[in-house]
């Protein structure tokens, strides 16, 4: 079966005074069927978060334009994007009054393959026909407590330190970078990169169903509208990048 790619990126400022999320999707300049999706959730005083998130997207785009599959593996490339963005974000401390930090999640799609890397609590989900295949683990205190069995999922949702990250870009410590991937892509596969301003309002089952039942643009609109309604006036910035594998 011949397959094609259906994509959409979407953002909303939520109920914040400034948009500090950034998202981008870019085709490779010379490799047909090869693209990258990147999402960053910035943190920092003044405009520091926006500066940091912008650097993540910029480095991903710049590095991807020079990516050569014959001499660099996808995993090496993805790690380098996050490491390079981390270095640039740290340098911006010397040129601004802000204290910039950011999460990062980056996915490369090429014929038959998808690879990704992340740091922080911005997530990548992989669904197949609506069922969850994989999800990136958060680098957060709450995620560590959950894994240790010290709190329940219900307690995690209302934990007072649920936004405390254990690793991010721009910190003194090097970012913790985790990678993943899948082969044998097929029609029915769907990927979504999203910030916590979106995923906090959905179960895996509901998100997978919305992605399965709709094209990328319609799914993005439904997810955005539902997240805004459920935030009840207290929503964070939210952003997403959706990539669906569909039959031609």
UniProtKB/TrEMBL annotation:
It comes from the Bacteria. PROSITE patterns: PPM_2 (PS51746). CDD domains: PP2Cc. SMART domains: PP2C_SIG, PP2Cc. Residues 4-245 form the PPM-type phosphatase domain. Pfam families: PP2C_2. InterPro entries: PPM-type-like_dom_sf (IPR036457), PPM-type_phosphatase-like_dom (IPR001932). Transmembrane segments: none annotated. This is Stp1/IreP family PP2C-type Ser/Thr phosphatase. It comes from Viridibacterium curvum. The lineage of its organism: Bacteria, Pseudomonadati, Pseudomonadota, Betaproteobacteria, Rhodocyclales.
């Amino acid at each position: 079966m011949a397959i094609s790619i259906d994509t959409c990126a979407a953002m909303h400022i939520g109920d914040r005074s400034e948009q500090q999320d950034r998202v981008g999707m870019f085709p490779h300049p010379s490799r047909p069927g090869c693209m990258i999706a990147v999402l960053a959730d910035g943190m920092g005083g003044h405009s520091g978060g926006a500066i940091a998130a912008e650097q993540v997207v910029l480095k991903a785009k710049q590095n991807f334009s020079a990516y050569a599959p014959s001499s660099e593996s996808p995993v090496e490339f993805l790690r380098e994007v996050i490491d390079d963005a981390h270095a640039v974000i740290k340098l911006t401390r010397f040129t601004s009054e802000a204290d910039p930090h950011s999460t990062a999640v980056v996915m490369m799609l090429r014929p038959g393959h998808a690879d990704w890397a992340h740091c922080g609590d911005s997530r990548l989900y992989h669904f197949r026909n609506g069922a969850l295949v994989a999800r990136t683990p958060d680098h957060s205190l709450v995620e560590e407590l959950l894994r240790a069995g010290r709190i329940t999922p219900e307690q995690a949702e209302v934990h007072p330190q649920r936004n405390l990250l254990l690793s991010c870009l721009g910190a003194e410590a090097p970012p913790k970078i985790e990678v993943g991937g899948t082969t044998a892509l097929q029609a029915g596969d769907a990927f979504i990169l999203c910030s916590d301003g979106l995923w906090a309002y959905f179960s895996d089952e509901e998100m997978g169903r919305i992605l399965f039942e709709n094209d990328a643009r319609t799914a993005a609109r439904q997810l955005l509208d539902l997240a805004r309604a459920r935030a009840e006036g207290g929503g964070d910035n939210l952003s997403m990048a959706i990539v669906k594998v569909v039959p031609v």
